[in-house]
Amino acid sequence: MKREEVTKEAKPEKSDFLLRIPEVLQKVNISRATLDKLRRAGKFPPGVKLAPKTIAWRASEIDAWLENLPAYSIATGQSAAANGSRA
Question: 61-72 burial, b for 16+ CB within 10 Å, e for fewer?
Answer without folding.
Answer: bbeebeeeeeee
